[in-house]
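Re: duplicated header lines in exported structure tokens

Our pipeline writes sequence and tokens for each protein into one text file. With two proteins the header for the second block appears twice in some exports. Here is an export where it did not happen, for reference. First protein block:
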Amino acid sequence: MHAHAQTEPESVGSLDPLARERGHLAASRAALRAMREDAEALDIRDVTANWVNAAVLERQLDERIKSLADLAHTPLFFGRLDYLHAPGAEQAEGAEGEEFYIGRRHVHDADGDPMVIDWRAPVSQPFYRASKKDPMDIALRRRFGYTGGDLTAYEDEHLSDATEDERTSKLLQQEIERPRVGPMRDIVATIQPEQDEIVRSGLGGSVCVQGGPGTGKTAVGLHRVAYLLYAHRERLARTGTLVIGPNDSFLHYIEQVLPALGELEVRQATVDSLVAHVEVRGTDEAPAALVKGDARMAEVLRRAVRSHVTLPTEPLMVVRGSRRWRIPAYELEEIVSELLARDIRYGAARDALPQRIAHAVLVRMEQSGEAPDDRVQDAVARNAAVKATVKAVWPPVDPAKLVLRLLSDAEFLAEHAEGVLSEEEQRAVLWAKPARSVKSAKWSSADAVLIDEATDLVARTHSLGHVVLDEAQDLSPMQYRAVGRRCTTGSATVLGDLAQGTTPWATRSWDEALGHLGKGDAVVEELTAGFRVPREVIAYASLLLPDIAPGLAEVNSVRESPGSLAVRRVGAGELDAACVAACVDSLRQEGSIGLIAADARIPALAAALASAGITYLSPGEETTPDTRLTLVPASLAKGLEYDYVVLDEPSAVVAGEPDARTGLRRLYVALTRAVSGLVVVHAADLPEQLA
């Protein structure tokens, strides 16, 4: 492998490889500009038949123009592949090879010839997968190094040359370790073979990625969406894609990744926003939340919804003109029982009932010599007597009112939870002070999930083509069901780390979680190579693994970073000042800083920073060159990362949770947010696992 950085002034342009590559970059930028200008100049007025088509075309054109933006600090290409033979051609003696520049998006010249190939195209795959063992017909793989938007270095691997040793790429290492200011970056230039395999797995199957801190699982999930949108553009444009994250600050942190890859069409949401049928103003105690989040609640709700159906005991008389048609009670009962047995959605069955009754009337009409058609059947279905019977037998159900009644009425709950929930569990979920109405109720987020389940029992939830679920280990079984409803006809990418589960109902095993999601056949992949967190830091955090996730493989960090961990004990009254001093030290380095502390400690640290004159951000706010420090409550640290982390009082982080295991998991999350260095500051004793 040969690395080249240009330091001398450029001389003989044609002979200087770096000058040639810079020329190709300038020409590619000009070609992209021309592609954008062509799109902007398109006149669609003559090609559309009506205003609806015109609006659709105009929106598509706007999206196209947006996706052709040249982002100043985002290199157009980051690699080059020189094939020994033209891809797809017969590998004949003397056949000419071909070179391709690999980048974030496709760029072509005025003749339509490619100048940059999209990283997702099949021809780009060897950039990520080729090796000395399997060169994949590649003579040369070249990686480019950039400073700002300028091409400043390149590095070559001659994959088909047996005499050249295999080494780790310095440029790759630098790109992985580059300081982070602003939102999350894409990893398109640094995707590893095991990550690429997940990224390029097909749309049909669901994938679950178990990955420890710094293994790139979030980035892999987002790149998989970008890949699927490239490979199945039309289908996913119809069915839609969705990325689900744990909170808004996390979504804000990742929201730039897909646009940088040219994808603007992916919706983002939290589980709470997906199920927002009511305003959430209350919280549950852990025992109540555990029961409400249990999958058994689905059966309680199913019984409660179906309990609204009462079998008819009276015959039905339908008057049409001078004739009267009588349907006996036993026949009505058969119709209703048959619909119940089919176990279709409550609302769909309710819509079908008047038609079934009308059909029974039509059979009698035909028997008496009449020849009724579909219009007569529809008219009978709308008949007042039929409507009255349907309303009495199969009344409409309001999902929120149903859940309100279950949580307020002990008898109603007992009737439908019998044999499913114990008496103690029933008492845990009953409201101490029943709410009067849906509007006045102080709903919790677990209640909103129950309403979502009831809503789906009444009418089917719309399903998308692909859903990415990140930080999945924190979902309850009922939340998994809510997400699963949104991809019943599509596939899912589930991302998480069992060791980072910090809710009382945190996932114990992926098999169980995937079952609740309705994706029991998903393939579970484990990422164990860490690229972001230094080896010393991950080894220190991993001391907690035997207690928080026995049996889980420790992340093996590829990053050697001596001196990246410091643990400092201070006197009881010196904690705030010591944390501020550690932040001041860290701010002398390049990149972002996170001061992470137990939620209860945040006000004291905020005051200490303010009195030291240090400005800081809240999680999710974007770092700028002037303000690089974020004050992070431990409960919001998950999924975020900073170049340097100062961690305040580990024992307070543990004590802030309802039980020791959840506290240690929260601490594991906090310890693994650092990309370059971690300083642990404590006055109280450290948890015994770290001592």
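Second protein block, exported in the same file:
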Amino acid sequence: MSAPPLKKPVVTEREARQVAEAAREQDWRKPSFAKELFLGRFRLDLIHPHPLPTEEAVRRGEQFLAKLRVFSETKIDGALIEREARIPDEVIDGLRELGALGMKIDPKYGGLGLTQVYYNKALALVGSASPAVGVLLSAHQSIGVPQPLKMFGTPEQKQRFLPRCATTAISAFLLTEPDVGSDPARLATSAVPDGEDYVLDGVKLWTTNGVVADLLVVMARVPQSEGHPGGITAFVVESDSPGITVENRNAFMGLRGIENGVTRFHRVRVPAANRIGPEGSGLKIALTTLNTGRLSLPASCVAAGKWSLKIAREWSAAREQWGKPIARHEAVGAKISFIAATTFALEAVLDLSSQMADEDRNDIRIEGALAKLFASEMGWRIADELVQIRGGRGFETADSLRARGERAVPAEQLLRDLRINRIFEGSTEIMHLLIAREAVDAHLSVAGDLIDPDKSLQDKARAGANAGVFYAKWLPKLVAGPGQLPSSYKEFRHGGTDLGAHLRFVERHARKLARSTFYAMSRWQGRMETKQSFLGRIVDIGAELFAMSAACVRAELLRSRGEHGREAYQLADAFCRQSRLRVDELFTRLWANTDDTDGVIVKAVMAGGHEWLEEGVVDPSGDGPWIADTTPGPSERENVHRPIG
């Protein structure tokens, strides 16, 4: 007899945190450069010399990139995709023939077996032709069926599904619901055991690729019953299964060609053989998949930076104001310098994180998250600066520019397309909290029981003793280090440019960051988790220090290989100088800020105390609920699922 359907969960804040905590990877079995950085230990040896791909990986990767470049230049019409808000079927068929659906899939299952480094290069290349095409390939392989099965699937599941994913079948990942975003404890979609099957009911929102997908990874809650531990669980689901309806194809301000929709499940039967991992492991699977899956977003930002630099350079040389090209005006030149230096750093962060993922020597959960956070924020700033450099033409659409006889530069489209990266796969605010939790893991491991209200006095006493031992050894090491010695990192000094000075800055400020974190934990203790603005600044400092480290290491790699070494050193130096100013400001704002004042204003606003300020405008919003109804049941809408081929 099957278990009863689940009711929509009502979850307290504490319960939600417990669910998120249970889904974390608890152990650190491998070293982590970023984790050490947050603890005040600058482990340059973990990233320098810069890790490199094998010759075979390079050969295979470059061979595919050459084919993909020809395809992107001759078969992908980005302007057409933007106008029609759809990727032509023949483009997707062409990608299938190239093997692009199987870039990350092992050759024994029909894939290309590219490394993470070359997979990201491919996404950047094809995404520069059309960001929508890049998203389709990324959603299919970074978080869709291939990656979870690669990491957690059974041999039988891999044999059944991966050959299809490598050649023909498009996949999608379904976690978000209309009333559930980054708080998965409230997940309402149910998977009720019934014999050898599970019966799915629920509604999923923002299902990237969902409109055209052949295979779905679905996260659903299994109720506890005899023989079933229950919990949020992952399933591979055939998209044409009876009871699945794609009720809407969503439209967005950017990425207009993506096939993103709303999918309803009504009594959909899924074989138990399609369950990925044990019951209750769905969130852990999702988070582990995202450790590397998030690197696809920095790839799109690197592509945007490279293109923005090209357009800024060409336009600023052609456009004259007051008797000289605008690039020679300091106000514009500063923007070009920012774009160039930041693009160099973004590529350094992406390639370093990706190569570390390929080598699997290090735990990169923090590095991958920092790469996503830093790239999405800086990529957006790059696009904004490009629009500003272009002036009125930056605000004008490419079609309008073309119609009046000028070069059709889609700068405003870039701005629209990149905006979602600050929300996709963990918003900036959620990334701040996620990274902060990992950054303070060592502290919570030894002293967490001291601030846990549920722990007994005996537990707290034991934690106090452990914490005393840990901090007696750790704190003295934060006082001094190689960052105070002018001779440190002297191998990073070439051609009059001393990148070693920037690495010394990183080392000193890593220790300062650790001291600041410790002081905050001592000051706020159990309230630390509520200080989200403070934690965000801590994480942003760590991101800048990581990016500075990656930029210096990449510059030295290029110099040692005779590949634009002098220029790379210049770019790394410029980026680090810009980054140091941001770091100094962030440290100041740790303690000098408006957080308390902001809290007072928020309370007043939410209590209606400032409704008078809203007078004098018309609200153009339409009618309807803030959140759509997700009551389980049969669909009353037309199925807009559109399988390709």
